[in-house]
Structure formats: C-alpha cells, structure tokens
Amino acid sequence: MQAAAQQPDAGQIMSKSRDLSITGSLSANINLTITEKGGAIRNRTIAMTTKSYTDGLEKRFIRFIEPADVRGTAMLVVDNKNMADEMWIYLPALKKTRRIVTSEKGKSFMSSEFSNADMSSPTLSDFVNRHLNKSGINNQWIIESVPVNEDKADEYGYSRKISYISIDKNQVQKMEFYNFDNELFKIIEIKSIFPLSDGKYLVKNMVANNLNTNRKSEILFSNIDEGIKVDDSYFTIQNLER
Amino acid sequence: MADFIFRYRWIIILLCLLTGVGSALIIPKTKIDPEMRNYVPQSIESRVETDKIESEFGVQDIVVILFSDTCIIGTNNLNQIKDIDRSISRINGVSSRISPFTVKSIMSEEGMMTVDPLIRQIPSDTAGLAKLGKDILENRFARDIVVSSDLTTASITATINSSVTEKETLQKIDSVINSTPGRAKIIKGGLPYIRQSLAKDVSKDAVMLIPAALLIMLLILKVNLGSWRSVMMPFSVVILTTAFSMALIPLTGWKMSIITLLVPVILIAVANNYGIYLVARFQELSYRHKEASKKELITILIRSLNMPILFSGLTTVAGILGLLTHSIIPAKQVGVLAAAGVSLALFMSLMLIPALIFVNGTDLITKKPGKDKTMLFDKVLTRLSKLIINNPGKILLVSATAIIIFSTGIGFLRINTNQENYFSSKHPVRQASELINSKFGGSQTISLMITGDIKDPEIMKGIDVLTTRIEQEKGVGSVFSISQVVREMSKAIYTSTEYGYDQIPETREAIAQMFELYNMSGSPDDFKQLTDLDNTKAHILIRLSDPEIEIIRSVKTRISELTVNFPAEVSIGGYAIIMADFAESIIKGQISSLLFAIITVLLLLTIIFRSVKGGLIGSIPLVASILILFGFMGYTKIALDAATALLSSIMIGVGVDFTIQYIWCFNLQIRSGLSYPEATAASMKTIGRSIIINALSVMAGFGVLVFSGFTSIRFFGYLVLISMGSCLVGALVIIPAFLMKYRPGFIGFETGNKKTGKNEKENSIIRVTTAAFAGSSSTA
C-alpha cells in the first residue's frame, strides 16, 4: 500500500503516454503482414496521410496499394472522439463512393489481429486504470485498464488490458488483452518507434499475436514524412475518386 | 470333462469369481459417446469430406437457444436476450453466434452504405418496438433466422468450438441462462444439447434397465428353480458374463453408446438359459435317482446336456456375430460384446455350474413341482397338438397366408437416422428441435465447400445459383452463402434502378473491393463461416427444416446435379450427409448381417440335424419371423434405425433355439419308436412347455426395454416381443405342422449320445435325461 501511494496515478500515466503518441500530420506507407497458423502469409500495403486537429479530431486518407485486386481503393476516415467514426470508401472497380458507419472499436483492422482501437489513441474515459504488482520497478509501469462498463467491454472486445510502459520514456512497450474468462488471448508488442521532432513518437513496428488462433499480424510503417502540410481539401470525397 | 471339473472345481470357481471382480473394477472406467457421427467409420467419404470442411470452417454443430412469448419483441424480452447473448459471446467455447443483436442491417441511405447492428438500442416505447418488428421482417438476415415471422420466437445460434470441452461450454451456457431470468420461455436445442441429453439418458437407462432386467430374471429363476441356492447358480453366470462384457467396453477402448446399452439386456435375457437347463435337470435327476451319488449325477448331467447346450449356444453366438458384418460401428461392437458374453455364459454354464453343483449339490433338490402348475400348459398344448396332428395342411396354409400378408408391409419399411426421433415428443430436446425446424430453418445441416478463387465472378455466380436453387428444395429451411452477402451489398451500393443492383459483380476486382468495403464497415468475422480470409474457399451452409433421410438424399442428389459443371471443386459434407450414409450403412448392414446369420445358422442346423434338408426346414421359422418382423415394422411405421437394425440378428441367434429344441425332441420321440402323431403330441407336451417358458423369459428380459427413455430402444423392446412370438409360433406351430405334413427323411438322426459301456446305470439314466432335456416339465 505504501509503494502504491508513492506511485503516480495510473490514469495519469496512461494519459501522458497517450499524449505522446498522438501525432500531428504525417504521411507514411503501412505494410501489414498476416501470418497464419500454418505459416501462410498475406500482405497488404496502404499509403496513409493523417492530420490531427486541436479538438481531438483526426482525419485519415488511405489508398490501397496491395493486393492488386483492391489497388486504387481509397478511404477517408474522420475519427471523432466522442461519436462514431465517419468513413467514406471509393471502389474503383465499381466506380462508387459509399459512406460507411461503424462504432465498434473491437473490430478487426483490415482482417488482422489488430483492432480498430489498437490503431488509434485510446479514449481514456472508457477505462478504469490501476497499478498492478511490480509496477514501478525495473523502469516499468504495469497498468491494468478495465472498461468502465459492459457496453464499453463489448465495444472493445476484452475484459481487461495490461499495459507495460517504460517509466523514463512513457512509451507503451507491450499490451496484454484478456477475454471474458479472464484468459490472455492477445499480446501486442511494440518493436520499434519513430521519434518525432516534437518529442512525441509514432509506433513504427508492432506485432500482434492471437493466442487463440495462433495468427500473427505485423504492422510496419515506412516512408514516414512528419509535419507535412496537408490542405483540408485533401480530406474530401472528391479527392477519393481521383 | 466331469473329472476335470471335480478336480479343479475350486480353481474354476475362483477364476470365474476373479473375472467378475476384475470386470466390476473396470466397468466404472466406461465412457459414454453420444456422438452419432462416430457410428460410421471415419474413412467413409461423407466423414472425410465433413472433416475437411470443418477443418476450414469449424465444426458446424450449433447450439440454439429459443425465447418464446406471445410477442417476443418487447423491451423486457429483448433485454433478457441481449444479456444472455452478451454473456454467451464471452464464453470461450463459443466461436461465433447469430442473434438479434449480431445481425447487421446493410442499408443505403442518401449515398451512405451503413452496416449497423439491426438493434442498436432496445426501444422502450410501442412505436419503436413496432418499427423494430417491421425492420426484422424486412431483413433477410433476421427474418426466420433470429426472429420467427410470427414474432413469437427469437433465437441465439452459437457455433461451438473445441477449445474447451463441449460439456464445459454447455454448462456455462446453462449457467448464463439460469442467472438471467425473464418473461420469455427458454428452450435449448441443437446437436450438442441432443448429445448431452443422449449421454444423460444413456446413463439413466443403464441405471434403471439393468437392475430391472436382473430383477425380472431373478423372479423367473425363482419361479422355475425354487430354492435361492439354485437360483443363484444361473444368476451368477448372468452377473459375471454381463460384467465381463461391459468391462470389455473400456478394455477395448470403445465407448458406451445408446446401442451398446442393449448388450447387458441381451446377456441378462439369454445368458441364464444354459444354466437353467443344467440346474433344473440336476434337480430332476436328483429327484428321480435318489440312489445315485452326486458325482454320478453330475457326470450324467454333463454327458447328456453338453451337446444340446453347445449347439444352442453356438447358434446364438452365430446369429449375434452376424452383427460384425454391419458397417455401423456400435453394431459391430454389440456383436463382439454380446457374442463374447454368450460364449462366456456357455463356458461358465458348462464349467462353473457343474462345479457349483458339486460344491452345493444336495441342497439343490427341490420338491417336484405340483401338477396344478402345469395343468394350464398341458391343456393348451394338448389342444394345439391335436389341431396340428389333424390339420397340418390347413395350418401351413393359414401360416403362409399370414406371413405373406405381414411381409407386404416390408414395402412400407423406412429408415430413420434422425437423432431427434430417439426422444419422445414431450422431451425438451425434441420440442426444441421441432421449434427450430419449423421456425428457424432447422438444426441439422449440410455443408458445401467450394474450393477455388471465390472472387472470380463465375464461381461467385455459381455459388449464387446453387444457393437460390437449393433454397427452393423441399425440406430446406434456409441456406447461407457468401453470394447472398455480395448481393445484399450490391443493393447498398447501387440504387434499385441501376444495373448491378442485387447482382453478382462482373469483375474479380469489383468483388474484391466489395469484400474490402465490408471489412471496413462490418467485420470480416461476420462471414468467416462463409469464406476463408484468403477467399480461396467458400462455405454454403444448408439448414434442413425436415431432416428425414429421404429429404437429405433428395437434396444431396439435387446438389450433385447442380454441381456437374461447376467452375470449382465442390465438397459435400455435414452432419446430415453423414446420417444419409449412416442410413445406407443400416440397409447394407441389415442385409449382410441377415445373410451371414441365416447362412451360419443354416450350416449349424445342417450339422446338428446331419442333413441339408434338416437345416433348411429348421430355418423356416427364422425366415418367417424376419418377414413378419419387417412387415410389422412397415405397417406400424417403426423405422429401421441404429437400434432396431440389430434386432434381426439377435432374433436369429436367440429364436433358433426353439426350433432346435423342438426338432431335437421330436427326433428323440421318433427314434424311441413313436409314430409321427404320437411324437408330435409327446413333443408338444414336453418340450412345448420348455420352449414357451424359455421364450417368455427371453421376452421378459428384453421387455424392460419398453421402459427405456429412448423411443428407438422402446420400439426394440416391443419388437422383441413380436419377433420372439413369431419364433415361438414358428417352432411350435409351423415346424410341427411341417413335420407332420411332409415327414422329412432327416428325422431320426443320431443325437450323439453313444453308449460308453462303462456304466450301465449311467447309460440308463442318460437315455432318460437326454429325452428329458427336450421334455422337461419343470424347467425353462
């Protein structure tokens, strides 16, 4: 109890870590590799440009590069912090743009082991955070995050998450996800980060292991261009169809 | 042999006792296998194909939880369903589920494609609930899939996986349901629950039927043998052989199934027969030959009865071994277990009982049964023999006519492999199945796996055609395929007037991009049951609202027709297809086991009667009984199933004894110089009673089956009464009339009891006892 009293509040640590990972504007290529249990590998490559706004709004423009049959497919995502994301997708083969609506953060990101929530900064108010045993030693905070209610648990798709955060850099190194039987089912490890000029950082390489399916997904950022000036008109439906 | 038994009596008794104790220790290790697919060999095509499909798309065994109310679309009901659905989604053993809260609504509104949960928020007012009801009825993924068209029933369908045991998963589901009370009535169904009920009811049946059968046997033995010490001799054989056979189940690595439940009952009904002959005959000998020593009597007993008992046992074993030709796995197991049990009963009767008699001999003598007891039998049998002697031709004509009339019922004989029918119509599992079949497309499935480039428009169109055509087939409740999702998405992408609306796109890229669109809006998990992540395999799931065998066959044939020129590889599997193969196995197994049993019994009868003609004549009651049995089943609509398919072999094995006993006795009467009418009258009066009591004891033993929890086993019990009754009539009416009418030349054959010349007293007694075996008035 005495040790816990000396520790900073777990929520504050999570908040600080989150703030450090929120980027301004950047563009990058993202390569997603999904390795099946039997070793079969699927690759996807997308080009992404993001722009963050001061009120927490984030816009993303994504164009698919690989695989060939979805090349040219483009997406515009408006990530609203307190309401459902807005998404538009352009399908070149059908020459149609459609707006799609989803609010389920626990959904798989591009059929990988990552969820949509893993790909964006967590909403702190959705969780109750606390230190676990051994938090604060070996330069590591060990913090458990439990969804605030059943609806949030359903939305995220897990009962609790344990984050391992380096004390000196406030960077998340590893996350463990537990199912509703309180069994560990997914581990995300941050393999490398890309330091940004404003002291913040971008997760460059991370790996998700699904212990239930024995599938592994890896995301690797390349051609990172930070601080680019992107006009708001870039994030429009008209631009999708170009 | 008698000397051997005298010398080693204690060793024989000890060995038998050890066998029993050892068996009793092993029996608790028995496991129950309620999985009907394990009844068919793993190597058959349907199982191979099903395993292949399940390795890609998971086991298609579904648990269905039904919620019923006058109107299920109410706030309280929906909250209850939501809570249960949420808890079930969190159970590890559940891989996916379909419920009113997982169904998506794919819509196009003002240029937006929305993939939203059908129920985003549970309405609390009447207008909201009415709108939800309307939305459900308009949603093709909801109507009759998660909510019935009459809005009285909702369902949660969970596909379970093997990450934890099925038992554990069902326990968790039960616990979720029990801890979430509500207004709606909840019924659970689906194959996992059927298996759970089967496993429970098999244990319950075993616990109830085995002691009941033993009790009945005990009473029959007491009535026939008098003293408890006499009763315990054949009864100990029953107990030891039943225990031995049951212990063979875990020893061989087999598992107890609904079918193997028949083994103890067969043994209880059959294994005492030989012991009864020996003990009763010893009582008879002791009573008649008070001057003879115990050793002398036992020697005589063994010499006189060994052969007939051996013949009787061998024909029973031969009939039962016919089950080995079945391809149904538990049928073979029953064949092995029952044959092993009967063989041991034969061995123990010939070794253990004489040893026990030697140890207890003098205490076994009971009073000679009074005349009152036999008076009724005598009257009936005297009248019957007069009738046969005076009208053999007419009796044969009437019998032949009756057999022909019965046998026409064979045309109506049907096969049933539907597990649901094992339960009575009031059983919760049966009620759930009927509700699922009538309102939710059915719980039994056929799976088609398409292997190829699923994004190829030709293949996708092929899947679409297959889906829509199969949907129209009789007995098909619903069909799920990826082409339905693609068409539904096309409706959200195009307006109803545009080309492409409700159609499969023309290019591979268009389909690929549609999938991508869905991945971004919905979840790939939404259709992981329908296509794999690489889109190299697609799964068409067909739910059957009428899972009867004719329907399954007809759907299978239609699928084969529709996939002749299919542009990709098509595999057909699923539980229902395995059951269709199972039905095929029942027919083939029935034919092969019947042929095997009839030929083997024919050969044995030929050897026993030392004449081919004798063998053929001896087989008449069997053939007649088989025709009557199947004809009766046809008329009464009792189907051939995994249990009733075993009956004919068991009937042949047990029922042939009556004919052997009659012809054996009749032959002895003729050899002793009686005329045909005299021999008929004498045989009827003596052996007739034995045969009737023997048949009644077998019927009584099997009769407990009518109290089984399983419809099929109950029918088996009723059918035993019919088949044993037929064998009885065959042996005591048809055979005597046939022998009277045609006087076949084989009668007068040697009985094998040659004079040894070593003891005149023994020989004189043997003559009496040989005849007495056939004509006891005090035994079964």
Describe the structure.
- The complex is a heterodimer of chains A (242) and B (780).
- Helices cover 12% and strands 46% of the residues of chain A.
- Chain A is mostly beta strands.
- Chain A has a single domain, classed as Clam (outer membrane lipoprotein receptor (LolB), chain A).
- In chain A, strands 6-5-4-3-2-1-13-12-11-10-9-8-7 form a 13-stranded antiparallel β-sheet.
- In chain A, a hairpin with a 4-residue loop joins strand 5 and strand 6.
- The longest helix of chain A is centred in the first third of the chain and has 12 residues.
- The relative contact order of chain A is 0.20.
- With 780 residues, chain B is α+β, with helices and mostly antiparallel strands.
- Chain B folds into 4 domains: 208 residues, Multidrug efflux transporter AcrB transmembrane domain (Multidrug efflux transporter AcrB transmembrane fold); 128 residues, 2-Layer Sandwich (Alpha-Beta Plaits), CATH 3.30.70; 182 residues, Multidrug efflux transporter AcrB transmembrane fold; 152 residues, no CATH class.
- Helices cover 62% and strands 8% of the residues of chain B.
- The C terminus of chain B is likely disordered.
- At the A-B interface, strand 5 and strand 6 of A face strand 4 and helix 18 of B.
